[in-house]
Design brief:
CATH class of the domain at 299-517: Alpha Beta
Helix content: 25-40%
Radius of gyration: 35 Å
Strand content: 15-25%
Number of helices: 30
Number of strands: 32
CATH topology of the domain at 299-517: Isoleucyl-tRNA Synthetase, domain 2
Low-confidence stretches: 342-348
CATH superfamily of the domain at 299-517: Valyl/Leucyl/Isoleucyl-tRNA synthetase, editing domain
Largest sheet: 4 strands, parallel
Oligomer: single chain
C-alpha cells in the first residue's frame, strides 16, 4: 500500500472516483470523436449521410457562440452549453436528427488590444485561445458536430460575410413590395422614367457621381455623413446599441460624444414594421420582445411644417391636436438648419448676424451674437451623453437662434431655440413646444420666461391659466379648448377626433401629413479597428463606391505592424478617427479591373463591427464546406425552413444571454429578412425559439480598500465574519471573473470530481433561466449521486456488473415509470434541475431497497441519466452488454399503468376538522367514496349518532361531512 492509497481504495478498487471518472471520460470522448457519433447528416452535399437519420424529424439547437478569451472558460460560461447539450442528447434519444455544434465569434476588440500590448498578431493569440477553449469544451463531453464548427476569422467564413454585405449594398427596400429588391430594379425604373430623380432630370443626364448619390439614398447599405457616437478613448465610433444608458462605451466604459463623420450604415429602419410584426410569431421571452418593441419605438402622429423665411422646420408630433398650444420651437444642437453657425458665416443656417429687437437677455446666454451663442452651446452639448441631455431632473438649458417660425394653424410667430433635451436621433431633431401639456417643455418655458397656452381642458380641478400651475397637464382623455383659427376649430373635440381633423386639414394644405415615426435608427456599421472583416468596397478617383466582384472575395486583412487605431484623451471630443488600415498604403491604393479596364482605386479602411459575423452564422453551420454558395437551398430548407408552428422558419432552439436583445438579435433578424427577400434563404427569421439562461454568480470579497481578494483564500469564522490575511473583508454576490478573483475553472472541478459531476451540478443548481450562486462545497452532492448510481450496477471490489435478470417488484416499477414520465416532461421543457431530482429519487429507491438491481430497471436508469451525465452512462451501458452507443439509444417510455398512483389518500372532515384518512383507488366514484367515509369507524365515532345534513365529496381526495 502506497502512502497515498487509502484503505477504502484498497477495499473498493473499482469505486467511482475522480481518477476513474477521468479515465472513463477521456476514453468515451475519444470514441465519440473517432466514430463521428454526433455528426448530423444533411439531405445532400458534402455532409450528406445516413438516410435513415435524415428521414427523422430534425432539430436544430444552437448556443450564442463564445468569444475566445485568453482567460479561457470559468464555470459560469458553459451553463448554457451544457443545457443545450442535455436537450440535444434527449432529442437524439427521442428520434430526432439533431444539429448541434459550436463556433467562435473571433473578431473584436480584446484580441486587438492584446496585440497592441504584446506585439502578438491578433490571429496568433486568437487561434491559441480557440485551441484552449476547444480543449475545455471537449472535456465537458459536449456532443457537437465538429465538422460544422466555424471561426469568424477564417477567410473561408468571412468571404460570405463580405458577400452578404454586397447583397445588402446592392439592394433597396421597395415599399410597394414590402421587401428588399436588387438595386438593378431601381435603376431600371429610373431609366424607364417610371420613377423620377430628385431634381427631375432624366437618368441619362446624370453623371456617375450624381447617379451614385441618388442610389445611395435607397441602398440598404450606404455611406453617409451623419452624427455618430465617437469614443476617443477607444478610437472608434459605436452603434447606438453599444452605448450604455449613462452615455459611455459598453466596452471600456469610456465617454461617448456626438460627432459628424462619413460612415457605413445599414438601413435597418426600412424593416421596422416587419421586425415588429414578425415578433408575434416567435417563441421568445416576453421581456425580450418588449425590449425590441421599445427599441424600435413605433409611434403614430403627424409631420408638420413651420415656415421660417424661405426655409421650413419640420417636426414630428404624436399630439398634433395641441398645435394651437405651440408657443415656441426647439431644435437639437446638431440640427442641419443651424449647422455652420459656429464658423460665423451662417452658411446653410437660419442663424442671423444680430439679435432681433426685443430679444430677452435670458435667451442669449450672455453672447453678443446668435452665431456666438449657438456655437458655444453646441460645443457644450457635444460633451454630454444622450442620457445626460434628457435627464428629467436637470435644469433646462438652451439659447435662442435669433429667428422666429410661423405656427401654421394660428399664424403666430414663435421663437426658435436650440436645447440639448432635443436629440437628432428621434423624429426630425425638432419639436413644437407645447409647454402647458408637456413636462419638459413646461420646465423650459419657465426657465426662459416663455408663454404657455392651455389647449387641453384640465380634468384635475385646476383652472385653464398655466401661470397658476406647478406642472404641465397631460391627458388623452380630455376635450380640446382654445384651438380655433380662421378656417378650423378643434374646440370641444376629444383628442382622437381632434388629431384626425387637424391631420386632414394639414394634408389638404400641403403643410403636413399623418405619419409613423420610429425610435430605431439605421445601424452604424463602420469601426475604426484592424481586427475585423474588411469591407469589399473600393472608391474611384471621384469618390464613388464600387463593390468588389465575388471572384475577388474574400478580401483578406493585410499584415500590419501597428494594430492600434489612434486613441485620444477619453474626454477630448474634438478629435477624428484614424484607422490602422489607412496606414498600409500598398494595400489601400490598388489597380483593379472591375470590368471596364484597369483603374486605380482606394480601399475602404474601416472594418465591419464585431456583430457582422454573428448575424448569419446559423446558416454556415448548415453547410460549412460549401465553397460555391452561402448555403445550399435544400439544406437550408431542411434545417430552417418554415413549417407548422414556425411560419417564418428558423433555429428550433437558441440559448443565450438576455443582454443581446437589441444588439445581436435585432441585427441577425434584419440580415435574415434581407436574405429571405432576395431569395437566398427560405427562413425569414433566424431563431424561432429563444431561451435566456440565467447567470452563475459568485461571491466577491473586498478588503477595506475595496480591492477584490482571492475567494479561495477567504475563510469563514465566528458566525459568518470573513477574514483575509487576518483582515475583515466584505462579501457581495456578483459576477464571476478573473478580475474579481473569484473565478473557478471547469478544469479544476473536472480534476477533482469529473466532468459528469460538473454537468450535473450546473444543471441541478436551479431553474435554467434563473441566476444562481456557485458553491464549490455543494458540488460533492452530485458526485455522490454518481457514486451511488455506479454502486447500483458495478461491484466496487471486483468491478463486475451486479444486476440480475429478475423482474422488479411493483413498488420499484412504480418508482421507475414515475421517474421516466417526469424526466421526459422535464427534459422537453428544459427543467433539468427537477429531472435530476427525479433521477436521484429513483436511484435512492434502489439503494434503500437493497440487494441487486433488476437489469430492466438499471438499463432504464442509465438511459434516464444519459443526457445529463453521458460519460458514466456510456460506460455503464457498455458494461451492461450493449454494443451500440447510448447516445442513439431510445429514451425510456413510461407505462401509464404504473404512473398513476395505486391508491391516493382521501381526507375525511367533519365541520372542517380532519377525522380520518382513507387509502382509496384514484378512480373511485363519488358514491363509493361517500359510503366508505361514512362507514369508517373513526367517522362513526365522531358523529356519535348525530344526523347528517350534507356530505360534500371531491373524489378521490376529500369528503366533508356537515352534521345536522
Amino acid at each position: 500500500m502506497s502512502e497515498t492509497t487509502t484503505a477504502a481504495e484498497v477495499a473498493a478498487p473499482h469505486r467511482y472516483t475522480a481518477a476513474l471518472a477521468a479515465d472513463i471520460e477521456a476514453r468515451w470522448q475519444d470514441f465519440w470523436e473517432e466514430k463521428g457519433t454526433y455528426e448530423a447528416p444533411n439531405p445532400k452535399g458534402d455532409l450528406a449521410g445516413d438516410a435513415e437519420l435524415v428521414a427523422r424529424p430534425k432539430k436544430f439547437i444552437m448556443d450564442m457562440f463564445p468569444y475566445p478569451s485568453g482567460a479561457g472558460l470559468h464555470v459560469g460560461h458553459p451553463l448554457g452549453f451544457i443545457a443545450t447539450d442535455v436537450y440535444a442528447r434527449h432529442q437524439r434519444m427521442t428520434g430526432h436528427n439533431v444539429l448541434h455544434t459550436l463556433g467562435f465569434d473571433a473578431f473584436g476588440l480584446p484580441a486587438e488590444q492584446y496585440a497592441v500590448q504584446t506585439g502578438t498578431h491578433p490571429r496568433v493569440s486568437t487561434e491559441a485561445n480557440i485551441v484552449n477553449m476547444r480543449r475545455q469544451l471537449r472535456r465537458l463531453g459536449l456532443g457537437h458536430d465538429q465538422r460544422r464548427s466555424i471561426e469568424t476569422i477564417d477567410p473561408a467564413y468571412y468571404k460570405w460575410t463580405q458577400w452578404i454585405f454586397l447583397q445588402i449594398f446592392n439592394s433597396w427596400y421597395d415599399p410597394e413590395a414590402d421587401a428588399a429588391r436588387p438595386i438593378d430594379t431601381l435603376v431600371a425604373q429610373f431609366e424607364a422614367g417610371t420613377r423620377q430623380t430628385p431634381d427631375g432630370r432624366s437618368w441619362s443626364e446624370l453623371s456617375d457621381v450624381e447617379r451614385a448619390n441618388v442610389l445611395g439614398e435607397y441602398r440598404l447599405a450606404y455611406a453617409s455623413d451623419a452624427p455618430v457616437n465617437w469614443c476617443p478613448g477607444l478610437g472608434t465610433v459605436l452603434a447606438n446599441e453599444e452605448v450604455t444608458a449613462d452615455g459611455r462605451s459598453e466596452r471600456g466604459n469610456y465617454p461617448v460624444f456626438k460627432a459628424k463623420l462619413r460612415q457605413w450604415n445599414m438601413r435597418i429602419t426600412a424593416y421596422a414594421d416587419r421586425l415588429l410584426r414578425d415578433l408575434d410569431a416567435l417563441d421568445w421571452p416576453d421581456a425580450i420582445k418588449l425590449q425590441q418593441r421599445n427599441w424600435i419605438g413605433r409611434s403614430e402622429g403627424a409631420r408638420v411644417d413651420f415656415p421660417v423665411g424661405d426655409e421650413k422646420i419640420t417636426v414630428f408630433t404624436t399630439r398634433q391636436d395641441t398645435l394651437f398650444g405651440a408657443t415656441y420651437m426647439v431644435l437639437a444642437p446638431e440640427h442641419p438648419l443651424i449647422a455652420g453657425a459656429e464658423d460665423g458665416d451662417g452658411t446653410g443656417s437660419l442663424v442671423p448676424d444680430a439679435w432681433p429687437e426685443g430679444t430677452h437677455e435670458v435667451w442669449t446666454g450672455g453672447h453678443a451674437t446668435p452665431a456666438e451663442a449657438v456655437a458655444a452651446y453646441r460645443k457644450q452639448a457635444a460633451s454630454k451623453s444622450d442620457v445626460e441631455r434628457q435627464a428629467e431632473a436637470k435644469d433646462k438649458t438652451g439659447v435662442f437662434t435669433g429667428v422666429h417660425a410661423t405656427n401654421p394653424v394660428s399664424g403666430e410667430q414663435v421663437p426658435v431655440f436650440i436645447a440639448d433635451y432635443v436629440l437628432m436621433g428621434y423624429g426630425t431633431g425638432a419639436i413644437m413646444a407645447v409647454p402647458a401639456h408637456d413636462t419638459r417643455d413646461f420646465a423650459f418655458a419657465r426657465a426662459f420666461e416663455l408663454p404657455m397656452r392651455c389647449v387641453v381642458e384640465p380634468t384635475d380641478g385646476r383652472d385653464t391659466d398655466p401661470a397658476t400651475w406647478d406642472d404641465a397637464f397631460a391627458s388623452y382623455d380630455a376635450k380640446i379648448v382654445n384651438s380655433a383659427g380662421s378656417d378650423i376649430s378643434l374646440d370641444g373635440l376629444g383628442v382622437t377626433e381632434a388629431k384626425a381633423k387637424i391631420t386632414e386639414w394639414l394634408a389638404a394644405r400641403g403643410i403636413g401629413e399623418g405619419t409613423v415615426n420610429y425610435r430605431l435608427r439605421d445601424w452604424l456599421f463602420s469601426r475604426q479597428r484592424y481586427w475585423g472583416e474588411p469591407f469589399p468596397i473600393v472608391y474611384d478617383e471621384a469618390g464613388v463606391a464600387h463593390a468588389l466582384p465575388e471572384s475577388m472575395l474574400p478580401l483578406e486583412l493585410p499584415e500590419v505592424e501597428d494594430y492600434s487605431p489612434r486613441t485620444f484623451d477619453a474626454d477630448d471630443a474634438d478629435t477624428q478617427p484614424e484607422t490602422p488600415l489607412s496606414r498600409n498604403e500598398d494595400w489601400v491604393n490598388v489597380t483593379l479591373d472591375l470590368g471596364d479596364g484597369p483603374k486605380r482605386y482606394r480601399r475602404e479602411t474601416n472594418t465591419m463591427p464585431n456583430w457582422a459575423g454573428s448575424c448569419w452564422y446559423e446558416l454556415r453551420y448548415l453547410d460549412p464546406t460549401n465553397a460555391d454558395k452561402l448555403v445550399d437551398p435544400d439544406v437550408e430548407q431542411y434545417w430552417m425552413g418554415p413549417r407548422e408552428g414556425q411560419p417564418h422558419g428558423g433555429v428550433d432552439l437558441y440559448v443565450g444571454g438576455a443582454e443581446h436583445a437589441v444588439l445581436h438579435l435585432l441585427y441577425a433578424r434584419f440580415w435574415s429578412k434581407v436574405l429571405h427577400d432576395l431569395g437566398h434563404v427560405s427562413s425569414a427569421e433566424p431563431f424561432h425559439k429563444l431561451y435566456n439562461q440565467g447567470m452563475i454568480q459568485a461571491y466577491v470579497y473586498r478588503d477595506s480598500r475595496g480591492i477584490a481578494v482571492p475567494a479561495a483564500e477567504v475563510e469563514e469564522h465566528d458566525g459568518g465574519v470573513f477574514y483575509y490575511e487576518g483582515g475583515k473583508v466584505s462579501r457581495l454576490l456578483g459576477k464571476m471573473g478573473k478580475s474579481l478573483k473569484n473565478a473557478v475553472t471547469p478544469d479544476e472541478i473536472c480534476a477533482e470530481y469529473g466532468a459528469d459531476t460538473l454537468r450535473l451540478y450546473e444543471m441541478a443548481m436551479g431553474p435554467l433561466d434563473v441566476s444562481r450562486p456557485w458553491d464549490t462545497r455543494a458540488v460533492v452532492g452530485q458526485y455522490r449521486l454518481l457514486q451511488r448510481l455506479w454502486r447500483n450496477v458495478v461491484d466496487e471490489a471486483t468491478g463486475e456488473v451486479t444486476v440480475v435478470d429478475t423482474e422488479p417488484d411493483d413498488a420499484t416499477l412504480r418508482a421507475l415509470h414515475k421517474a421516466i414520465d417526469g424526466v421526459a416532461q422535464d427534459m422537453a421543457n428544459l427543467r433539468f434541475n427537477t429531472a435530476i431530482a427525479k433521477v436521484t429519487e429513483l436511484n435512492n429507491h434502489l439503494t434503500k431497497a437493497g440487494g441487486p438491481v433488476s437489469r430492466t430497471v438499471a438499463e432504464q436508469l442509465v438511459l434516464l441519466i444519459a443526457p445529463l451525465a453521458p460519460h458514466i452512462a456510456e460506460e455503464l451501458w457498455r458494461r451492461l452488454g450493449h454494443t451500440g452507443s447510448v447516445v442513439h439509444a431510445d429514451f425510456p417510455v413510461a407505462d401509464p399503468a404504473y404512473v398513476v398512483d395505486e391508491t391516493v389518500t382521501c381526507v375525511v372532515q367533519i365541520k372542517g376538522k380532519v377525522k380520518a384518512r382513507l387509502e382509496v383507488a384514484p378512480s373511485i366514484s363519488d358514491a363509493d367514496l361517500e359510503a366508505a367515509a361514512l362507514a369508517e369507524p373513526a367517522v362513526v365515532a365522531a358523529l356519535n349518532g348525530a344526523g347528517i345534513r350534507k356530505v360534500i365529496v371531491r373524489a378521490p381526495k376529500l369528503v366533508n361531512i356537515v352534521p345536522a
